[in-house]
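Entry 14. Ran structure prediction on the chain below.
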Amino acid sequence: MPRKTIKKLRPAQPYLPDTSPFELLPLETKLQILSHLPRAVAFALAVVSRSWRDPAESVIWSKLSITFPRNQGTSVCETSPRVQNKNLENKRMERINLAFRTRPERIGWVRELRIEPDGDDINHLVDLVEKVGPNLTELRIGPLDQTTSMATDFFAAMMKNYDTIRPFPRLKQLEIGIHKKTSIESQFSDIVHLAPTLTKLTVSGTLSRARRKIDESHWPSSIPTLTRIRILDFEQGCIPLLAQIARSASELTEISIQCKDHSGSWMDDPFVASEDDLKLLRGHEGLRKLEWRGDWQSRYFFERICEDGFDKLEMLVQSEGIGCESETYIENIHVPPFPSLHTILIPCRSTKWYNRLNLPDWAKAPPPRFSISSHTISQLRQASSLLQIQFISSSSSSSSAVLSDAVAVEEWCNKRVNGVLVRSYTHKTTGEEMFHLKRLALKIVQPKIYNESSYQKGYETMKLCTGTVTGTDHDWIDHTSYRGYPIPEDILKRVYHRVKKEKGDWITPGRGLDMPEEAWEVLRRWRGKLPDDGENGTRVMTRSMRIMGES
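Output, structure tokens:
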């Protein structure tokens, strides 16, 4: 009998044929496809395809995170959370080092690195940062919102090798802690040396040493590429530091401040800021957005800083201690006299916000329907470009907000954002003014919408509104003023009837708009029948008046 041929079993190659159209796609196309795929799919492609391996791994390794939970509940018999995290960190580092030894090119693919040191031995993390640093675009060393963290010691440990450490030429975003035992001037010089093209910087730590005058001889002469600075744990004496940053960073466009809670010391400490420092800060030509977050007590310092200047500022984010829906009035908001300011965002809604069913003792009563206080009109005249104020959702974390940019008016009710739209009409000859404010009032509050995770996952399933102008859970309320008196609804309709291509139910704000002479005549005839008390009108008691002791 003929001998049977025995086929030798060979391991099948895991890769697809090299001639497959899927394999022959250009590298740019592969990277675009991978950018829309989950990391698990990218990992699978790296396993089964030779030509997709490098682009897939470049996506997989682009973000590297060594962070662990900080608040773990443990029993007496369990290992402490810090020990658990340290063990997890060691295992994670072993896998990363093994992956780098297996394929050294993976080191060059890391673009974003986030680490949270937790322990005395941080040298291995310092080595990791130095290894991947030349290709990094974002480095976050935290947690910066915990004063007991090792983040403030990490940068000092890393810069011990100042003479040998290579700069990170691609680094654009840096979050770092400032060490309390090293001068702020030298640490900022180290930051500029480490990241010469830095655009966004977040710092935290013990900044109280900035109370003294900054030593310019040890401060970097220029931070040419910095556009955004964010300071956590901001204290009363940090104005010189902020002013020095503004002086050095000519391209600075955004400043974000998170005030440190001193449980009343903001009101006890004097306002410490020299005129030179305030002039540097207020006179920055490139500043477009300012964010000030803090409790009610730090507002006094904020108002002092904003008394003048900031001519080019367009957006302001400020905390106002708004506690419930009935406080979302423009009368409760400090409007700085910035000539270019067009939007004010008030982070106020949180997971606890909707529980405030009763007004606190210091809250004012809502102003009468259709009215605008003389105090508000005075502020609007000084802020001649202000178009809108939005009361937005606030994150449960002190470090960020769910909404950091203005929301389109058409989306206000759907995103459970309410606010005030501002319109003013000016007579070019006589100088007469008519103010018309529209306030979106929410009549139904949805508790889940103020939960950060629920908000980020999507509010589409929770919204109740069917439209912007009309609906069952919200109302657009008009507030008007002409020479100190609110305009009755019938007179307002007659005015807008004479304004061509315009209706009274507008949702587009504007300042200094023109109005036909016939419309002005309607206002004059109506106003001429009323007593001439000037523009004082009805005095409205605001929260700032109540707290500061004004009558």
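Residues 81-102 form the longest helix (22 residues). Will compare against last week's run tomorrow.
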